[in-house]
Amino acid sequence: MTKKGRVFSGIRPTGRAHLGNYLGAIKNYVRLQDDYDCVYCIVDIHALTTVEDTVNLRMNTFEVALDLLAAGIRPEETILFIQSHVPQVMELHTLLSMVTPLGKLTDLPTFKDMVRQHPNNVNYGLVGYPVLMAADIVLYKSDFVPVGIDQAPHIEFTREVVRSFNYRYNCSVLIEAGMKNTEIPKVLGIDGREKMSKSLDNHIELALTPEQTRQRVMMMVTDPQRIRRNDPGNPDVCNVFSMHKVFTPQADVDMVNVECRRAGIGCVDCKKLFAENLNKSLEPLRARRIELAARPDQVYAVLADGANRARVIAESTMQEVRAAVQLP
Ligand code: SF4
User: For the whole model, what pTM was predicted?
Assistant: First the structure.
């Protein structure tokens, strides 16, 4: 089947994925493979801008690869690789940095957020983060980048860099990637308040055992107004119910929706039901993950093959870029 173009996305090597990563990105990555040529890159260089201690970087990169492959990334068609294995991206980053005004980078809201989050580590790489991201996208001549609406400014920035480069060197070597707007659901953590994240320890990892999953689910905050078992609840404000809607068969979702409101079901039973459905739904992914984890050589071979294929595209782009810049 002819695909509709090339999609690129970078994934930070943050270790084992959680439900927020899965529902917010990974499921979409898997789906996109049906219609697009996909290039998925585990961005280890990006991670260095904020990670000072790299002792877990290799392991975290491997864990991300495991989750992606277990979730259904098909490496025979999709290019899955580690960013630093294609060094051309660093070269392109340097060249793009020459056409990017510094003020533009320091004005970006994302840079200001990063400075707030990492006040003691405002490094040069952090300022250039969006330029490296632009290099990632344009190096592979990507047609689309799947992003949530909040990330749209990043893609617009990339498009501006492309225009500046093509204008400066009077060429049309780099192409402007379009946005593939994706509905990225905001998955709340088990605290029911903040977005699910590892740093807040409010997450549920995909790779937990069923029993560990149950324990995390039982910690989930429910409707805060429902104090006693006999109090009627309101599923519309309950994070457990939002998750039921994703993982529980519709008949049970409807049952919870009715029974919660008239205190016919208690939160403990409701969470047990959710944990059961969540475990059932993640069972195939977990089985594949265990299989892959037992054969790390095979996973590294997939990443090496992905890097080889990515390097071919990258080198071809760089030959055009070097010629356009008239590097001697
Ligand atoms: S019964 Fe379920 S949906 Fe209702 S408040 Fe409790 S956990 Fe939430």
Answer: 0.92
